Hints:
Distance between the termini: 31 Å
Number of strands: 11
Order of helices and strands: EEEEHHEHEHEHEEHHEHEH
Mean pLDDT: 86
Structural class: alpha/beta
Shape: globular
Radius of gyration: 20 Å
Largest sheet: 9 strands, mixed
Number of helices: 9
Strand order of the largest sheet: 2-1-7-6-8-5-9-10-11
Helix content: 25-40%
Amino acid sequence: xxxxxxxxxxxxxxxxxxxxGEVATMNSSSDTQHHHxxxxxxxxxxITHSHSHDPITEAFRIHAKIHNTTLSLEHDILAKNxxxxxxxxxxFKGRNILALNLMSSPGAGKTTLLTRTINDLKHQLPINVxxxxxxxxxxxxxxxxxGCQVVQINTGTGCHLDAAMxxxxxxxxxxxxxxxxxxxxxxxxxxxxxxDLGELFKVVxxxxxxxxxxxxxxxxxxxxxxxxxxxxxxxxxxxxxxxxRCIEYAQQVNPQIQVFQVSALTGxxxxxxxxxxxxxxxxx
Length: 284
């Protein structure tokens, strides 16, 4: 899956529909082959092994083992992902569906913000959710309680969603025409930034409990996002967090990023987030 972060190439991904109880499985590497092969290393050691692998990826790994070098596989992996992402994007466009990729570190408040957004806008926007976590269907059940359609993708050892997972999730979700699909990514500020899912906008969510320097410590995800939502601002009196400095850091990384300061608990600032969302539905 991801050579940068060490995700397993053969992780089993589960896609669960909480409403029907249907569970589908897929391998995180869809183009795999099984075979046995033997390699002789420079010191004369003979290695024979059998496994499943992507042939291009494995060729690089063998080369790295024999020559004691590390080669980047990122280009090949992302090229494959981006092809499927482009197909997803066309699928969304053809059905007039606005797709958002919600990303954050664990505990930033993605699910709380999402459930509040769904409950507040359910009479104005038909919102559907693809929920990503390594394990459990806990968040999908919370989303389901709002009355919207949701499928849960469990990535196992994987630390992010990829375009193929979203493609399979959409088959289960089957969102209606002229609707919104919120993709809640696995909690992680690194790998989700690299993987296009076919969404129209990336939204990075940062809580005031995390530290204002996150945009410059994890710049790629803030650079890739069109929106930053600063959550849990009701806790500002109780934490050391410089809001203005955080915004400046985010704009330093991405001058075009749009920032919303919200509390999903009290509702503060949500009207600005909702206005942006409704406007994108109208004009995207």
